[in-house]
Amino acid sequence: MSVELDRIGLAFVAVLAAAALVVPGLALATRPESAFHIPPYLVQLLGKYLCYAILAVALDLVWGYCGILSLGHGAFFALGGYAMGMYLMRQIGARGVYANPILPDFMVFLNWKALPVAWWGFNWFPYAMLMVVLVPGLLALAFGWFAFRSRVTGVYLSIITQAMTFAFYKEFFRNDFGFGGNNGLTDFKDLVGFSLQSAATKAALFSASAIALILAYLAARAIVGSKYGKALMAVRDAESRMRFLGYRVENYKLFAFVVSAVLAGVAGALYVPQVGIINPSEFAPANSIEAAIWVAVGGRGTLVGAAIGAIAVNFAKTYFTGALPEYWLYGLGGLFVLVTLFLPKGLLGLALRERETKPVVDTPAIAIEEGADR
Amino acid sequence: MALSLMMVLALSPAPEAHADALDDTLARFLADKFPETEKAVAELAAQAPPQGATILSALAENRLLYDAADRIVAYKTSAGALVNAKTGEPIPAANAAAFKKARVNNALRVAIEGAIGSLTLASPDPQKRVAAAQDVFRTRDSKALPALEAQLAKEKDPQATEALKLARAAIIAGADSASAQDRLAAIETLRARGDQDAQNLIDQIAQKATDAQVKAAAAAALSAIQMRLALWAAAQDLWYGLSASSVLLLAAIGLAITFGVMGVINMAHGEMVMLGAYATYVVQLILPPALQNWSLAFAVPLAFLVAGLVGVAIERLVIRYLYARPLETLLATWGVSLILQQAVRSIFGANNRQVTNPPFMSGALHLGGLEITTNRMWIIALAIVVFVALQLVLRATPFGLQMRAVTQNRRMAAAMGISTARIDMLAFALGSGVAGVAGVALSQIDNVSPNLGQGYIIDSFMVVVFGGVGNLWGTALGALTLGVANKILEPLVGAVQGQIVLLIVIILFIQKRPRGLFALKGRAVEA
Known about the structure:
The structure holds 2 protein chains of 2 kinds.
Chain A: H1 3-29, H2 40-66, H3 73-92, H4 105-109, H5 125-149, H6 154-173, E1 185-186, E2 190-191, E3 194-195, H7 199-225, H8 227-237, H9 239-244, H10 249-275, E4 277-278, H11 285-298, H12 304-323, H13 328-342, H14 346-353, H15 365-369
Antiparallel strand pairs in A: 1-4, 2-3
Helix pairs in contact in A: 1-7, 2-7, 2-10, 2-11, 2-12, 3-5, 3-10, 5-10, 7-8, 7-10, 8-10, 11-12, 11-14
Chain B: H1 2-11, H2 21-31, H3 34-47, H4 52-60, E1 64-67, E2 72-76, E3 82-84, E4 100-101, H5 106-120, H6 126-139, H7 145-154, H8 158-174, H9 180-193, H10 196-208, H11 212-262, H12 269-286, H13 295-317, H14 326-348, E5 364-367, E6 370-373, H15 374-396, H16 398-408, H17 410-415, H18 420-445, H19 454-467, H20 472-493, H21 495-512
Antiparallel strand pairs in B: 1-2, 1-4, 2-3, 5-6
Helix pairs in contact in B: 1-3, 2-3, 3-5, 4-5, 5-6, 6-8, 7-8, 8-9, 8-10, 9-10, 9-11, 10-11, 11-15, 11-18, 11-19, 11-20, 12-13, 12-14, 12-18, 13-18, 15-16, 15-18, 16-18, 19-20, 20-21
């Protein structure tokens, strides 16, 4: 990691830390008519972008540093979101439409008598938070163990991860799967006793997202900067050679994959209380691919760039889907094509290239022969 | 129905009361009261005069008229002429003003239908007798039983006998009291028929019978029918599986070619399929009505051309710059797919477009207990033709030879003087064109919408991952396995779980064979 990139990272952390303090301050302490006032919906929107940024950092960790283009990270994100959603669902209690103290509304509607085992314990916040981490982590562990052990790499791996999220997408759509079917989980009331409707809670969730993004970035940076991180990048560049040198390549990949999935799960858990709903469409393969383009736009293998890319693309999405809804898909599609063709190192790569004198080293011929994917 | 049945019973003691019962019966129409009309219908069925069926169908179709003053009942022929119902003599048009329509209601229509059924049982045309017997089988109208028995006694036509027996069996099954002998005979007849209807009827008999022998026969017949139905159901599942496989093969084979040759996955492959389907729609729009039946003959080449050209454009403009970066090709082609979808949405609208099946592709064949829809059959045929054609291209043309060489070892092929860039372009054109042809097939069985391709893309990938890219047979075997396995799993565990099970199986499968069933071998492909 270059010095320049580190400096940008530091600035990024500083900006985030400042935002974590200033945004709630402006949202809560100023009057609605003040020019500095940040309305609650905007706080929520910014918080949502930050969750996407965490997901992008998670994806960059595996794609940028390990060469695994996961097209299924949306699944880890959504699973974290569902774990949080289940907690929020249980918190509704007797305030639901059917006023059942134990069963969420959709279960009463489906005429279920008892709470399914999968829902047990979710009324307890620490348990729900454990699940936010554990469920995506274990899924990634199982999936990655199978995939990396059998040396599924490159596009094969991407397709298999996409199929994984597609399977979840279909499964969660079913009503009798027990997670709300196509309506998903919604109508949340409060989080550890604070009403989700209040401006203060929204501001607090924004700050939590900003802090989570800082922590995710620092964690990913620590991993990448360590000796393990060097080996990880070596695996990315010449997998066979690392294997012949005696490294257990699959373990390196697996660790990065699981950490990344956990980060994605945390992002999903922060996302759900801010948008107020989680439904199976979060599992849609298109969402996971979109996350990849955030990383590509910002700059693969930079972490900071991924986060910036997520925020920039989503800001553009919010703007264009409002202003020119017909052209947004052209824009997004064009972004995919143009960034991959002309900006392989993303916006951050473009910014850094002007200052760096060292020429960009291309994949060595030997690595191409070995089938390394960059 | 029950009411009319009671009426038949009430009337039956006095059938011979008048020399000309038909006159009395027809006189009931003059009152133009529903109960009277109903009696008349029942009497017509019981007396079975030669004019009966004509009069009844005229009544059902509101063509029966009456002149209360002159006590004449008449009907209008389809040509519009007025004819005396009893004698069949024409009535002068001048008198027509005196006639009024005999009214019918829905309850009456049901009674009329039953009465016509029992009248046509005695029709001289065996086809009509069969149709009438089948009517009785459906309605299970017990008042048709005497007519059935009478006809059965003198029936010579084997087909009609069969139909009559079945109708009788159905009535006996519905009857609360019937002799054990009758019931046994009914079970035997129904067992020979052996379908879902027969099963229900035997079930009825078993519930109503008290005789142990009848019950045992019913149980034996039921298990025999169930066995037979299960076999047919399995065959039907297999057929559905084959049909699903053919669609998968059509969608996946182009992907296998492009992935095999270039090692890049074209995420816009599904959109090539979609373009093919829209090409079919456009052909249908612009073709003059005289050529409509031949629209597919125009659609297949057009779809191949359109999708192939778009494929070449994608290859030349995007993919060719990304060969060293296959992962990014995924993203770039995904972007292309978004653009294509939105473009089609802008041009044709977001709604589904209707593509009609040409006559030779609509309808269904029945083979025993199998129902074979004709369009699916043609799609299977198309899949086979496409597969054979591609094999020929790969095995018997210089282009195919070069393509296989590039697939096996790109650098070596280039060293041997093969222009790999040209092969890439042509392979992409071929793969995309085949996807367009798949779109023509899909337009016949699925909604033509901008999202058409999305539904097939992941399944196609699975086929390629499972089958490997070394050989087109791998794709065929992959499609066949996944298609049939999916349809076999569907009734067992449900549609969604079936797909999930298959996905897990594929993930486990690539543990053993990471490059699919038919993997390329050699140093060049080993990562």
